[in-house]
Amino acid sequence: MPVGVAWDLVVLPVREGWRAVQILQDLGEAGPVLLTPQGVSVLVPPGSARGWHLPGARILRRPGTVEAPPPRVTAPHTLCRRSWIVPPDGGGTLSDADALWGAYAAALTADGRVGR
After folding, report:
1. Is 73 part of any domain?
2. Which residues form the domain of 92?
3. Running DSSP on this structure, what letter comes out for residue 74?
4. Alpha carbon separation from 10 to 19, 55, 68, 100 (Å, rounded)
5. pLDDT, tens only, 19-69
6. DSSP tag of 30
7. Would the pTM of this model clear 0.90, i.e. be above it?
8. Residue 115 placed within a domain
9. Is position 116 within any domain?
10. Are 33 and 23 a contacting pair, CB within 8 Å?
11. 116: pLDDT strictly greater than 50
12. How many domains, in total, are found in the chain?
């Protein structure tokens, strides 16, 4: 799938990424999220994660691609070491980058990686 056209990808370390996604789900803010060998990958609107400066977060923008399984392949099941933690809803819903930033910062704080 192409990155940077309809969405950018925020790649987070697995442990803190799972925590951040759980926080987003609790807030009702979770859009599609992939689990890949590179980490937890959250789809956000293009350009919305510019300026992020949190440890371990990587932003993938245009030009780029990401391999993704069909939406029916959800964790814990995998296909080529990839699965959806939150599958796409077919309506184009994406995660809000600001909400993700806050959730990831909270996950890092809980892990002791960012000072309180």
Report:
1. yes
2. 2-110
3. B
4. 14, 12, 14, 9
5. 999 999 999 989 999 999 999 999 999 999 988 888 999 998 877 788 889
6. -
7. no
8. no
9. no
10. no
11. no
12. 1
